[in-house]
Records
---
Amino acid sequence: MRTVGVEEELLLVDAESGDPRALSTAVLALAERRAEGDSVFESELHDQQLEFATEPRGRMEDLAEEIRRWRAEAAHSAAEAGAAVAALATSPMPVSPSIGGDERYRWLAQRFGLTAQEQLTCGCHVHVSVESDEEGVAVLDRVRPWLPVLLALSANSPFWQGQDTSYDSYRSRVWGRWPSAGPVDLFGSAERYHEQVRALVGTGVLRDEGMIYFDARLSHRYPTVEFRVADVCLDPADTVLLATLARGLVETAARAWRAGDPPDPVPVTVLRMAAWQAARSGMEGQLLHPLTMRPEPAADVAQALLAHVGDALEDSEDIGPADKALRAVLTRGTGARAQRELLEGSDSLRTVVTECAARTRG
């Protein structure tokens, strides 16, 4: 069975006001002390966020348990530092982000200016194991049309600098300012994939392979396909659903490759339309159906994704839990709807943040 690992980025906020707090150094030090030097937490581009990564897991129950455990640990360490953590993909409150002190982050700030300065966004990255780079690139070529559906299911960033953006995932619009971000053309082979990566790095615009910000890519650190398209989810159950669907997509694509089925040559320009639509309305309106690239109700498109990976999920015994989790999202909505409902009930973005921090803490 393919293993799955998750990286989640969390927002550090004031427990009372909801304002982002530049306390990552203090929180990381406390987390390391609590873990006796073996912490899973890392810094990110801005001092108002931190990241954790799970172990590769074969069972989704184990992945779910670990995600909840590290969210709780992050909350404990943040509380010791006088703050809280919130699984929000953007800050609802106005913020002037501060770049971290790492030399790499300082280079990004100098190179990319306001794009880096404003990039206080929190994503969720899902790693799924592959047997080789050749298999991995075959997967990348075949999952492209389905990635906007994962974005819609994760949408959790309706607010930016104190106002409603009218998008469910505004994080993805901000993230798209990086020069290497977004959907990509078909590669056809691992050799051509690596040629393109070398060409991009060779331009001098990017610092290194770590700045290949495709919506999905071969990890430069692990033998995995890394899905980078999603917002961090407010509900950890949604993170597990994303991981389940991602593993299903990888296995389904690998089987199609081995059977000799070619990938769908959807143009990048059309994929950008699909990604924009997913960011705009999330699961609340219409999405472009990956098989036709025509608008259909988001719930129907999500069910089509589940059907697409159904055989793979049957074999991994994930189909029942995935169906239940998807129905839950379709009923209660994503984090974007939850945030807007909290604002409607309180008329206060501060309440939105503090309540989301409480949900993150569990």
---
Amino acid sequence: MRKYRQRTRLEPTIALINVVFLMLIFFMVAGTLSQPLDKDVTLVRTADLEGRAPPDTLVVHSDGRLTYRGESVGSVQSFYTARPENEREVIRVVPDAELSALTLVNLARDLRAEGASRVMIVTQRGLDE
């Protein structure tokens, strides 16, 4: 009688190493690798600043009203034509949090139709410190 030799199964460590290596490469490519800041540079802290709209922005209230520098604006066309030539290319818009997305998209489309090359939406960015 022959003795049946039980074969030992090899663990797939090579396959596991390949998968881990591919994941490492993926995250290196997908992530942003940036140069470190100079040691002499200290970043500005904005935690204590009062939150208000920048002065040269079109503010859109939740009911669709438009204001610019605290004054009411009748329409997108009157706002755009009242701006100086050199300030018409980029328009900054501060929407109210309760404003409908459809209203905001329509406003941006109207500003682009008037001739603005870029419409920038200014939002609050929540950062945990």
---
Amino acid sequence: MGIEDYSGGPGAQQTGVLVVTTNDVPGYRVERVIGEVFGLTVRSRHLGSQIGAGLKSMIGGELKGLTKTLVETRNQAMERLIEAAKARGGNAVLMMRFDVTEAADVGTEVCAYGTAVVITPAAS
């Protein structure tokens, strides 16, 4: 897998929603604050990856199967976040964050959350 498989979610060009981790977007003005939005998913690891991870942890190194699963899980949570923002009329999400927790020892819960807003280009 290449770097594109391990980096960031979809861009604004693909989704119509800009997602940033900052409080504002340079060159844009917040016209309306919609409120908190989130995307949530819980994924379990299959038995093969758990066994492979257990063996790999004894010799060290990256757990590539688990890394791939976590990237896919984060991307799914972010896609759900974007859909929530769009459904409420937003075209941007400010202060996006991820929260990752273990879910009852059977999987990983990933929540992407932020503030949905409507932004417009600032007058020059």
---
Amino acid sequence: MDKPLAGIRILDLSRILAGPWCSQHLADMGAEVIKVEHPARGDDTRGWGPPYHGNTEDAAYYLSANRGKESVAIDIAHPEGQQLVRALVQQCDVVLENFKVGGLAKYGLDYASLKAIKPDLIYCSITGFGQDGPYAQRAGYDFLLQGMGGLMSLTGQPESVPGSEPVKVGVAITDLFTGMYAATSILSALIQRDRTGLGAWIDLSLLDVQVGVLANQAQNYLTTGKPPVRLGNAHPNIVPYQAFATADGHIILAVGNDRQFQRFCQVAGCPELAEDTRYRTNAGRVQHRETLVPELSALMASQPSDFWLSSLEEAGVPCGPINNLAQVFDDRQVQHRGMRIKRPHRAGGEVDLVSNPVRFNGMSMNADSAPPGLGEHTSVVLERLLPEQKEHFQHLSKEGVIR
């Protein structure tokens, strides 16, 4: 059975993470993704190591975001390279790019220039701060945007803890969210094009995305006028919903409603807490967290993690361990769901990759090929899509325009 995006062709001019994360998802869904890279440097993340895969030059960072693509090495700063990209655009449904605002206009590869040769083109631009506004010309990186966009003001131990400071999330979450917003926006534009025949220019800003995914915390501020503060592992709107130290480690207790709190108190041997008027409801527990949490902390520290995990699981109280990544990939549920996959590597053997989490009709959605080598598919793609220029490609290769 064909995958959902079979027949859709993406010309991917993006690099680093947000754009490639988007196009990897589209490739997993069946789209043909042509990754255009500089003939000498390629995607920056190719060199973001160690670690590297085996004895190759494939950095793990690059491998994480480029499965299922064809790498075509073209120097877009060269006039003949620009002509080649324009010819490819006419064979594609979507162009994805993350150059600085105006960066592609000097090459004639901006939206206005390409729309003139393909009116129904879907063109997705990812930048740090958007196509307009006082910060439009600034470069944007995930870490900067986690800070500027408010996430780091919510992440880390409270101000009252000695030595505490704002902390970024351990993965580039702003880039990843932006990549997924880009993917859903491209899919929406494809549906619109099928209905109206019109293309679209999608303008995505890392800052906009970071503010947009502040979710309940942003709404907490808009509702009260008071900026939320760092709470460590605690939740601003639910108690108890945080990590607790046990007799031999830490676990997460995630009590989502009053019934679960009652069951927790039964397991912990303190049923009177569930009847205390201060703690009977979640609103009361939030209001009185400063007295409740120390009591719960003392109780949790009295037993080892295995006791709490098994007893609370049996009682239907949400809880779980705090796993490192070795434990994650050893977890029987993670293994059952096939979240570690292997793909043949061009250097021989196989490369381990993280699976796309989406399933369609019980089928995992993962592209069949490993992330490509730099320029691995240049000849194949160009000769397939532009056969009339085949004789010209040898000249371009000698001039260093393609690799």
